[in-house]
Amino acid sequence: MPDSSEIARLFDRRPRHWGSPADPVAWNAVRDKVCAQIPPETATEFVTLLRREIVEVVGVDIDDVDAIAEPSVLVEGRPEAVHLPTWRTIVAPLLTARARQLYGELPTERP
Question: From CA 58, how far away is CA 87, in angstroms rounded?
Fold first, then answer.
C-alpha cells in the first residue's frame, strides 16, 4: 500500500492545458483533500476517494453529462466554475491511470 507522500506525488505533474482558470485551483483543493485521508489500500479505493473529493470540490458529478458547473471555486477572490469536460476527459483519467500504476495495476514503463 502506498504511503501519503506517494499519493501526493500523483498530483505533482499537472495537465498542460486547463479549460478554466478554476481548474488548477480545484486541482490543488482535490489534492489537499485526497492527501488528508488515510491512503487507500487499492487503486479502486483510491478512485472512489478521488471521485468523492472531486464532487465535493467542484459541486457536481463530473460524469453527469447534463451537469452544469456552478461558479464555486475562488480564483483571485471571485467565484469561477471548473471546465467539466477537462475534468471528465483529462484530469480524472490522468489521476486514475497514475494511481493504477502506483498500485501496480498498470506497467510504469514508457515507450
Answer: 10
Whether 111 has a pLDDT exceeding 60, the answer reads: no
Rg of the chain, C-alpha, whole Å: 14
* Residue 74: per-residue pLDDT: 94
Query: Cα 66 from chain centroid?
Result: 20
Query: At a CB cut-off of 8 Å and minimum separation 6, what does 77 contact?
Result: none
C-alpha cell at 102: 502506483
Dist CA 46 CA 48 (whole Å) = 5
pLDDT, one tens digit per residue, over 27-67 is 999 999 999 999 999 999 999 999 999 999 999 999 999 99
State phi, psi for 66 to the nearest 5 degrees: -95, -5
pLDDT (tens digit per residue) in 57-85 = 999 999 999 999 999 999 999 999 999 99
Q: What are the CA-CA distances from residue 105 to residues 15, 35, 42 (Å)?
A: 22, 21, 9
- pLDDT at position 110 is 55
